[in-house]
Amino acid sequence: GASEALLEVNNIEVIYNHVILVLKGVSLTVPKGGITALLGGNGAGKTTTLKAISNLLHSERGEVTKGSILYRGRRVQDLSPEALVKMGVVQVMEGRHCFEHLTVEENLLTGAYTRRDRAAVQQDLEMVYGYFPRLKERRRSQAGYTSGGEQQMCALGRALMSRPETILLDEPSMGLAPQLVEQIFGIVKRLNEEQGVTFLLAEQNTNVALRFAHRGYILESGRVVMDGPAAELRENPDVKEFYLGVS
Ligand code: ATP
């Protein structure tokens, strides 16, 4: 059903450098086929939560010291990011992280590096270009010379090339003009509806995230302080006052 939990984060604690407690017992559920938003201000712990899920904390000297993370009921805490990609979970990191010296198309193809089915990879490339016509126009350009919006599209497109079931998307709006933010979120929504991709997205832009997401979790200082359907959060007086800038 639509509410089947794909990803479950149960009461996790994350500590950096053995001493800095950053997540203080975070729990959240990502239903299959949904768009779930992880909200909160600067430093609330959104990125840390995503990195905990995709096992990217080690290079930051961070570790999950308590709690569990389950994907389709299986404990994934000790899997490598590569193994997680094979299970269908891929992260698009904040700051976009395209390979600057590769062309846009080469970047997209790196997302399919584990796949041997070349015809299908070619088909998926066309699928990505269908969602991002701009990337098709720029396919021979070196990624480092494309705009911030194009790099965000490139990062998302590369993630799609692994045929993910779930995309963990960190701060897609960062550094982009409002019109581009709308465009990126519009594509996220279409990918969700047309390709069935499940999203967990971290976003400081509460306003836009709650318009496109189905559910939201609000983090403050490493704790979930509120969660619920996006439509309810949008109408909540505290959310309005503290996160939507209206009262
Ligand atoms: P932002 O939108 O700024 O990325 P965020 O909600 O994603 O904010 P995190 O990046 O998860 O927040 O950071 C949460 C807290 O952890 C912050 O106080 C930050 O300073 C701290 N932190 C993040 N990375 C490290 C690290 N490698 N070592 C120590 N502290 C860290």
From TrEMBL:
Coiled coil residues, start to end: none
Family in the record: Belongs to the ABC transporter superfamily.
UniProt xrefs under PROSITE patterns: ABC_TRANSPORTER_2
GO biological process: L-amino acid transport
Keywords, sorted A to Z: Amino-acid transport, ATP-binding, Nucleotide-binding, Transport
Protein name: Amino acid/amide ABC transporter ATP-binding protein 2, HAAT family
Record domain ABC transporter: where: 7-246
Record-linked Gene3D superfamilies: P-loop containing nucleotide triphosphate hydrolases
Lineage of the organism: Bacteria, Pseudomonadati, Pseudomonadota, Alphaproteobacteria, Rhodobacterales
Entry GO MF terms: ATP binding; ATP hydrolysis activity; branched-chain amino acid transmembrane transporter activity
Pfam families xrefs: ABC_tran
SUPFAM superfamilies named among the record's database cross-references: P-loop containing nucleoside triphosphate hydrolases (SSF52540)
